[in-house]
Every structure is written in structure tokens, then in C-alpha cells.
Amino acid sequence: MGSRGAAGAGSQGPKREQALEQRQEPGTGEPEDALPRDALGRAWEELVATARRTVADGLVVGTSGNVSVRVGGTVLVTPSGVPYERLTAQDAVAVDLDGNQVLGDLAPTSELPMHLAIYRSTDARAVVHTHAVHATAVSTLVPELPLIHYMAAALGGPVRVARYALYGTDELAENMLRALADRTGCLLQNHGTITYGATLDQAYDRTAQLEWMCRVWLTASALPDRTPTLLSRGQLREVEEKLRGYGQPRS
Questions:
Q1: Based on CB atoms within 10 Å of each CB, which residue in 10, 180, 217, 246 is the most buried?
Q2: Is the dihedral of CA 216, 222, 223, 227 positive or negative?
């Protein structure tokens, strides 16, 4: 959305230069290593590329979604209401884990409470939120995406739907966290999707997979006098076990 984030999200807090040079790792009381400017710069470039990809792949319209990435104790986020194709290095926006803005003059995304809730509660390093068409449609129909495909295992299990709440609110963030318990993605009722991962690529891939599964279920469900075959929880657990060894062996 294009409005400003929750109260406090745009506050300046300590001087931004100091905040970027030396931050405290939450819960340790000790300063973490200074964040190199080039690390933040690379992260911002990757964030912008991912945000533009959500538009190119039809997962958002205009500025309706948002993306974030965590670098140490700093969270880079897309700004509110700015078309992604216009974003440059000078538009970088960052906050700390308390929502205090430490970089940039543009307002952070209005969905900042959801992003910060994920970073505070999980080991996420990247978050992608979209208004993908098929996923949003499914969010209005069921409390949980039916097990139409085994790739639900890649998100931790059956994908739940978080109860509706006004965008940009702590209530929505709380509803989202309940739906995300033991999951890396969920649907947001009458709203869209949110996924997270260890990297922007992983978070994005999970978003794309979720949208694809929603499209498959809607397509199969639309056939008259036919009921889609669904997987059992036992079958999904078998997939979860097999996915642990998926990919190329490590040398």
C-alpha cells in the first residue's frame, strides 16, 4: 500500500551514521561488527531486483507488494508508494529491529509491522509480500490451502490463511505470525501472500510456488462434477523427508 507505516516506523532514533557504523545484536548487549557500506549496497540492489521481479511475474500490480532483507541488525525495505522501476541507490530505506529508521528519507512500506514481526520471531533474512491473484482468491475461500501438491512441504506443511485485519497494523502482524507457526509462508485473508527465507531468492521462490499451488487448486476445483484428489498428511511427511536430501550433494 502507499500509506506510511505504523507509528514509530519512521522515527529517526539515534543518528543514522552511528546506527550504521555500530549496532547491537538483539539480546547480546554487545556491538556487532560495523556494517560495510558495500554490504548494504549489494543487499539493496538485490532487494530492488526482487521487487521488480514480483511486478514482471505478475505477482503484484503497481506498488501493492513489498520486499525486505536483513543485514545484521538492519532491515532494508522497499519504500511506501514508490514504483519499483524508479528506485535507485539513493532511495535506499532501512530500519532497525525496533522500527526506527536508520537510513533514507523515504517512508518505509506500510507493511513494516509484518516484516519486523517475522525477523523478530524467526531466523528469516528476507521477506516477500505480494498480492498475487490466485493466492488472494484462495485466501477468500478456505482457511487452509488444500494439499493439492507436494510442494506444500517446501513451506513447512499445509499453508494456512491468516485472519483478515487492516493492512499495516499490529493486529495483521499477529494474525500472520499465528498462521506462520512452523511454516515459511502463509496466505493473508482478502489480501495476499507472505513468505520468508534465508535469502531473497529463496523467499521469492516460495512466493512463486505458493501462487502456483493456489492456481492449480483453483483450476482443478473449477471443473464441474469433479473433486480434486488431495494428498494426505502422511504423504506430505514422506515428501518432507525426501526434500531434506534434495539438490546436489555437497562436496
A1: 180
A2: positive
Phi/psi at 224 (5° precision): -65, 140
Instruction: Determine contact, residues 208/57, Cβ cutoff 8 Å.
Output: yes
Active-site residues: which are they? 111
If 0-12 CB within 10 Å is exposed, 13-18 middle and 19+ buried, where does residue 60 land? buried
Mean pLDDT of 60-69: 93
Please name the amino acid found at residue 71. V
b/e per residue, 194-211, with b = 16+ CB within 10 A? bbbbeebebbbebbbbbb
Question: Mind listing the pLDDT tens digit for each residue in 17-40?
Answer: 444 443 444 443 433 444 566 889
Convert 111-125 to b/e letters by CB count within 10 Å (16 or more is b): bbbbbbbbbeeeebb
Do residues 103 and 12 lie in contact, with contact meaning Cβ atoms separated by under 8 Å?
Answer: no
Give me 13's grid cell. Answer: 532514533
The x, y and z cell numbers of residue 52, run together, are 521488480
Q: Quick one: angle between helices 37-56 and 200-221, nearest 10?
A: 20
Task: Kindly list the distances between the CA atom of residue 227 and the CA atoms of 28, 122, 148, in Å, as whole numbers in the listed order.
Answer: 53, 37, 11
Q: How many angstroms separate the most distant Cα atoms in the chain?
A: 64
Helix (H, G, I), strand (E, B) or coil at 250: coil
Side by side, which strands form the sheet with 185-188?
101-103, 94-96, 74-77, 66-71, 126-130, 192-197, 185-188, 161-162
